[in-house]
Amino acid sequence: MKEPHLLGSYLRTLKLPTMLAQWQEVSRQCVDSDLSYGEFLERLAAREVNARETKAIDRRLRQAGFPAPKDLDGFDFAAVPTLNKKRVLDLARCEFLAKRENIVLVGPPGVGKSHVATACGREACRRGFRVKFFTAAGLVNTYLEAREQRQILRLEAQIGRCDLVVLDELGYIPLDKTGAEHLFGFFSRCYERTSLIITTNLPFAEWPQVFAGDERLAGALIDRLTHRIHMLEIQGDSYRLQSSLRSRRATGGSDKLSAT
Ligand code: ADP
Ligand code: MG
Predict the structure, then answer these.
(1) pLDDT in tens, 67-97
(2) What is the number of the ligand closest to the CA of 112?
(3) Ligand 1, pocket-test mutation among 89, 240, 245, most atoms within 8 A of CB
């Protein structure tokens, strides 16, 4: 059988690199299995589509800027019986994004809030959504920098293009008035447009202290946020602490942890 001369250059012109790289292999498979031309083309096109999807997912995961690649596969639900596994798995299917709903994960340090928030965010990337991860302090800094460079509009446009923003560690660091106002601006920007997953150690009643003691600002903010919300409360001891105790026991060490 004659080899095609121009196929490579056509596939390059059409920007189909996977088809270019794999047509010979797929062609051999199809000859061996006695498949039709139509099936050959379908298999080859599927390879291109799959490669593009994988690349797009990698790009979205990269752009989201998650600090660690945590997924629900690696989450031990048995360690946090107060967290409803089915509910988390349901939420990870990302239907809340289409409805512009928000998730708030509240609980003490080390119980897996950031892990669950990151895992849901990564799942959203896999499902084709645009996601961005910020710590609350990082977001406020990003706003302050943007303001200095007169780029607030650009930053807000960037945020507006996201389907989901994961806002980690709200309430860990109290904000000054400017920081609180920026965060309020951010929440207003996201309201009914961009979903949020927020992790916090503070119940809503204590939010005013994050927002420079401004009850009205905190109230307005909670109002916007809780309009469409899924609350996940995680109680229990720090997983970090427990697992480090477990490994110490396993190695015959003492249960006491030195302060770090
Ligand atoms: P938080 O945000 O609530 O302070 P993290 O999500 O940062 O806690 O969890 C602390 C560390 O413990 C992380 O490395 C996280 O992956 C791990 N971790 C916490 N809970 C679990 C769990 N139930 N199963 C597996 N790993 C967990
Ligand atoms: Mg955390």
Answers:
(1) 999 999 999 999 999 999 999 999 999 999 9
(2) 1
(3) 240
